[in-house]
Amino acid sequence: MKREDLFESIEKQILAEKVYRSQIRKKLGEFKVLQENKNKKQFIAEKIYRAKLRKEFASVVIELTEGKKTTFVHNTTGMNALEDLFSNTNLLSVLESDYKILTTSYEQRKDYKERVMELVLDLFKQEEIGRDEDSINESLQRLFEEEEPDIQITIDGEDPPEDKIVGPKRDEIEKEKDQAREDSENADAIDLKQDATGIRRADLAFKKIENSIKTAYDTLGNPADQTEFKRFLIANLSMYFKQFESGLSNEPQADIPEDAQQAIDDAETKLSDEGGDTGDTGDEEMEVDLDDLEL
Questions:
Q1: 117: left (phi over 0), alpha (psi -120 to 50) or beta
Q2: Rounded CA separation 199/205 (Å)
Q3: pLDDT (tens digit, 9 = 90+) per residue, 31-65?
Q4: 189 contacts 62 by C-beta, under 8 angstroms
Q5: Which residue in 25, 62, 230, 271 has a CA-CA distance of 20 to 30 Å to 48?
Q6: What pTM was estimated for this model as a whole?
Q7: How do residues 204-256 score in pLDDT, each as one tens digit?
Q8: Do residues 240 and 93 touch, judged by C-beta distance below 8 A?
């Protein structure tokens, strides 16, 4: 074989090899693209399937939760209204969250609990007064709508009720009430504890749950249901406050890091040193500042 023929044959082989390798690379590229597309489709399908599962699981949880809330039915409407108040409103969560904020002293939590109870009782008193007024208005309306009302007047030796007294005597009674109210406010101001945090927190919490209690109570028209609602509302609140206190005492206390504790000690030392350099007057001023910080 001539040298020229040999070189030509070699060049043809090299060219054929290049073409063959080019075709292999092309096929490998196409296979890689197909595999990537397949993986993407599989990934998207898996995400859709998981989302569908989560949605179905959430719906099952909601059904189970709602089923638990509505399954327990009491023998009386008053207790059912109370159950709805405690289970389906924010009453317990509001009372518990504000109660557990008061960690400085037990006295704060005691004031909080007593104040909430006092506000609940006052709310029921206001509701009873409103219902009595509505009943009187309805009776008067029926009385004046009658063509010939049957009115009987009886006279006895007893004084009339205060709301029926007229003339100067009523002014005297009002003055006595104002004086008694002023004396009571002064007594409260004298007996009021320096730390009113619990009372203030209770007032704030009660504003959040007052409408829920009123709504639940106003739906009741039977006196027996109303009495049962009031009685066991107070009893349940007392029980839950004990539970809040028990849970608070069992909660683990957070450990203060050494560097944070050192910073606290340094700050206390600095405050003490600054108070000692200014004499007695400076001590008094520093005490006022610290009291302000505590408030």
A1: alpha
A2: 10
A3: 888 888 888 888 888 889 888 888 888 877 776 66
A4: no
A5: 62
A6: 0.48
A7: 999 999 999 999 999 999 999 999 999 999 999 999 999 999 888 665 555 56
A8: no
Q: Report the alpha-carbon distance of residue 172 to residue 177 in Å, rounded.
A: 9
Cα–Cα distance measured from residue 203 to residue 215, given in angstroms and rounded to the nearest whole number: 19
Confidence of residue 135 (pLDDT cuts 50, 70, 90): low
* CA–CA gap between residue 219 and residue 136 (Å, rounded): 20
- The Cα-based distances of 141 to 25, 137, 146, 147, 171 in angstroms read 100, 6, 9, 12, 29
Query: Environment class of residue 111 by beta-carbon count within 10 Å: exposed (0-12), middle (13-18) or buried (19+)?
Result: buried
Q: Using H for helix, E for strand and C for coil, what is the string for the chain?
A: CCHHHHHHHHHHHHHHHHHHHHHHHHHHHHHHHHHHHHHHHHHHHHHHHHHHHHHHHHHHHHHHHHHHHHHCCCCCHHHHHHHHHHHHCCHHHHHHHHHHHCCCCHHHHHHHHHHHHHHHHHHHHHHHHHHHHHHHHHHHHHHHHCCCCCCCCCCCCCCCCHHHCCCHHHHHHHHHHHHHHHHHHHHHHHHCCCCCHHHHHHHHHHHHHHHHHHHHHHCCCCHHHHHHHHHHHHHHHHHHHHHHHHHHHHCCCCCCCHHHHHHHHHHHHHHHHHHHHCHHHHHHHHHHHHHHHHC
- 295: pLDDT strictly greater than 80: no
Rg of the chain over Cα atoms, rounded to whole angstroms, equals: 40
274 has a pLDDT exceeding 90: no
* pLDDT of res. 36: 87
With b for 16 or more beta-carbon neighbours within 10 A and e for fewer, the 17-29 pattern comes to eeeeeeeeeeeee
Comparing C-alpha atoms, which of 215, 292, 244 is closest to residue 112? 244
